[in-house]
Structure formats: structure tokens, C-alpha cells
Amino acid sequence: EAGKDSCFVYLVTVPRGVDNAPDHSHPIWDYIGDLKISLAYLNLNFNQEFQYPIVIFHDGLVASTMETIRAAARESGPLIQFEKIEFDWPASLATPQLRDGHQLDGSTCTGKPWHLNYLHMNRFFSLTMFQHPVLKPFKRYARIDTDLFFIFRMRTDMFEKMETEGRSFVYWNDVMEPEGCVYGLESAIEVYLRESGMDLIDSLDVRAGYHGCFGMGNLEFFRSEKYLKFAEYLNELDGIYEHRWADQVIYRLAMTIFGEEADGRVGRWPELKRHLQHNKKYPSDLCSVVPEHRTCQETYWQMAKGKRMRPIHGGAYKHVYFPLKEDELDDDSKAETFLDVELEL
To answer: Model's pTM, two decimal places?
Structure first.
């Protein structure tokens, strides 16, 4: 919408290499299906009223898919701008020869390999997104993961609240990463601080991050020379690909090192927990908000009950099923909460 200086940002990818992924890999989500539901809830519980632009970065959606995504967003559909991107490697890994001999699957993080686009996502959100010209007209952004749903109406304009409070970053919850996800990061930060003539920070915990499914940022900060220099330094160390250094850990390190947290410019809004639902399962009122979803059709539930199985959003390569409890077998009123990982709107 004309005059809006803030926007929502999504990234949706077509998973690569799924057919050849090891059985113990981290799951591949149905990003496109989730995105449609996320947009429907964003429209219903926030954007139908506030009408902010939505930028959807993608790596190869076809026109017909873009139209179904726009339709799923309801009144917010005309506010969507699709922007195709090409994921790139840092210069240190730019050629196959440079990548040869490296295990670039982030498996030190949790003992399981991560698919490549997930690792590229961390590079994109920590660095290259802020350099993209499509965000140049905007002062603030809110990044939403495709599996995040606005389940309750928000009466407050989040972007205005962020501006009024003078925030550089806003998040809703804290996380602590496993040791394997930050291998080499502490020493890398020490080198950066020394080479930049900055004091070491004794209390700095490289495992601490922000909950990554939602975050709001001030683009003046993220486009600043100091942040981009810091992010480029970390991106060139290969840790994103070898150890799954997370974008949300990089954000928190930057906010600490550059004094944004100490100066009160980072806002933790725990009240967002009431409004946001991340992952695990779909909202219980999905069939009211997105009635065309195939899991809301009677034929689907006849099939599910015939299998005596309860499908849920499990995020695996195949359906994830859990046995129905006895009191669920014939209760049609509960069917709308039994939702499936494969989505088509």
C-alpha cells in the first residue's frame, strides 16, 4: 500500500534433494502449503485491518502457484510482491573445488543433516536479505516463517508500536542452541572483537538466540556498515553450512556487541505468545478460516477414520500418523483438529 514504510517478509523454497536425503535427516516441511495457511491467518487477525505490504522471497515458484498463494491471502492478496532469488554461497565456498572436502550439512548441530536450502536460509536472513533492493523503500520488516500462524486478532499495529518504542529488533521468546550448533563461533567472535579494536564481552553466550519463527527489525540498523561487515565476516567462516550457525544467534550477537540490547533497543514481547502459534500442529479453527483445505472435506475424514489413524502436521517426508484414542474414533466434532502435513488449498 502506498505510504507504508514497513512490510512483512516470507521466504518459501522448493526443497532440493529430498528424494536422496538420508532417512535420519531433519524433516522437509510443506512450505508452500504452510505459507497459504499462514497468509490466511495473517490477513484475518492483523493485515485485513492494517494493510501492510507482504514480500515473498522464493527460489522458483511458478505463476499458477503464485496465484493460489495470492488467493489464499484473501484481502491481503493484492499486497503481495513475489521476488525470485538465487541462493549463493559465501566467497569461501563459491566453487565446487572450495566446497570439496567439507561436510556442509550442519550435522554437528544435532547429529542429523539439514537440507541445503535450510542452511542457505540462514545466510539469506543474516546477510543477503538486507542487501536486496526490494526492501530499499522500507524502514522496518517483520519476518514470518511459513509455519507460523496468527491465531488471535491483534488490535495493535505492531510496526507503530515498534517505532514508538524505538526498537532495533523485536522478538517473542528466547532460545538456547545446542553446543554442536555453535562450534567455532565463540573463537570467531573473539577474533572479530580484537581485530575491530573492541573489548571482549565476558558475559557473551554464543548459544543464546531469539526464537526464529518471528522477528521484527529496523532496516536502518541491519543495513548499517557495522552490521553488514559483522555479518559478512561470520558468513565467510563456513559455520552456517558446517555447524548450522543460526541467523537468530547472529542477530543476538550483533545486538549485544553493538550495544542495542544494553541500550534498550531490543524488545521482547512475550504477549505475542497469545497471538502466535508455531509449528507442531495447525490451528484448531482451520476449517473455519480455510474451508477449502482438503483436510476439511468429509471424504478425507472418512479415509482417516478408516485407517483408525489421526494425521497431524508432523513435518516429515511422509505423513506422520498417531493412533486414535478410543474416544476419538466416532467423534466428528473433533475432526477439524486432526490435520495433515500435506496441504493443498
So the answer is: 0.84
